[in-house]
Amino acid sequence: xxxxxxxxxxxxxxxxxxxxxxxxxxxxxxxxxxxxxxxxxxxxxxxxxxxxxxxxxxxxxxxxxxxxxxxxxxxxxxxxxxxxxxxxxxxxxxxxxxxxxxxxxxxxxxxxxxxxxxxxxxxxxxxxxxxxxxxxxxxxxxxxxxxxxxxxxxxxxxxxxxxxxxxxxxxxxxxxxxxxxxxxxxxxxxxxxxxxxxxxxxxxxxxxxxxxxxxxxxxxxxxxxxxxxxxxxxxxxxxxxxxxxxxxxxxxxxxxxxxxxxxxxxxxxxxxxxxxxxxxxxxxxxxxxxxxxxxxxxxxxxxxxxxxxxxxxxxxxxxxxxxxxxxxxxxxxxxxxxxxxxxxxxxxxxxxxxxxxxxxxxxxxxxxxxx
Length: 371
Hints:
It comes from Streptomyces atratus. The protein is an alpha+beta fold. The protein folds into 2 domains: 2-142, Thermophilic metalloprotease-like, CATH 3.40.1830; 145-334, no CATH class. 24% of the residues lie in helices and 27% in strands. The chain is built from 10 helices and 18 strands. The longest helix is centred in the middle third of the chain and has 17 residues, at 147-163. It is globular.
C-alpha cells in the first residue's frame, strides 16, 4: 500500500495563461544554462500532458533569441525506463538534428536505450531535462536562482566531495548508509557544451559509488511513491541484499527481478527549489536534500553502467544529515555551504544574501534578484 503521489503531468495543476510573465526569469536562466544562440535548432520534447503555458514560455524565449524552435509532443515515458520498447525512433532522430534539446517529460528519457547518457554524448546537441519540473511552479521558484551563484555553490560542493573518502547519510526514520570508492563528474558545471546532459532547475552534486553499505528506510521512491508502511533496504558491496516490508516492498522486488545496485547519488544545492509541494524530482534539488538512484542488475546478475537497467528507482530524502569523512556537510536538511562567507559575498551581487540563500520554500525569490 502506498500513499497518493502524482504519477504524470496528467494529474498536476496547469497554469493560468497570464502567469507566463512569472515564468520568464526562470526560463531566461534555462536558456542561459543551455547556451541557446541565434540560428540554432532548438527541439522541445514535450509530453501530451505537459502544461501548454510552460511550452509556450520556453518556445517564445528561444524564438526571442532568434533560434529555430521545434516542438515534438510525445506519449509519456515509462517510470525508470521499465518499458524497454519505448520510445519510438522519432525522438532520437530529431535529437540527432538538433543543437539544443529541452526535454519536458515526467519520467527520464535518459533511462531509455535510445536516449541514454552514452547516446546523448555521441550527438552534437546540448540536452537539458526538466523531469517532473516542466511546471509553472518550478520555473517560478528554483529556476530563478542566479546561474553564477549556483555554479559557485556547486564548485565548492564538488571540491569537498572529491576530497572525501567516505559519505555517510542518516535520517530520523532510521536510514544509515555509507558510500565509499566514489567518483564525481570531474568538472564543475558550466553552460552546456555538445553532448552534455544536465537536469533543470540546476540543483545538485552527483557522485557514483562502487561501495555502499548500510540500511535505508524508504521515504519516497519511483516505484512506491510515499509508502504508507515501512520499507527497509539493506545494502552491502554496492548492491541491495534485502528488501523488507509488505505490499510496497513486493512492488520494489517485482520492479527489478534480477536485483538492484547503487548507480548514483546526489546532494541538493539549490535553496530556491521547493522542498514542500514539489514533485520528487523537483525536491531532490533543494539545498540539503538527498537522493540516490538504484538500477536493475543484468539477467546475469551483474552491474552494467554502460546502458539503462530499465528499472531505475530514485529514492528521496528531504531532511538528511550528511557527513564527509565525519565532518557535517548537511545538518538535518540544512546545507552548511549556504553559510559560507564567500558564497554570501557573491550573493550580494544579485541582492540581499539573506534573501537569496534563505532555503525557506515559501519565500519565493523576486524576479529582480534572478540575474
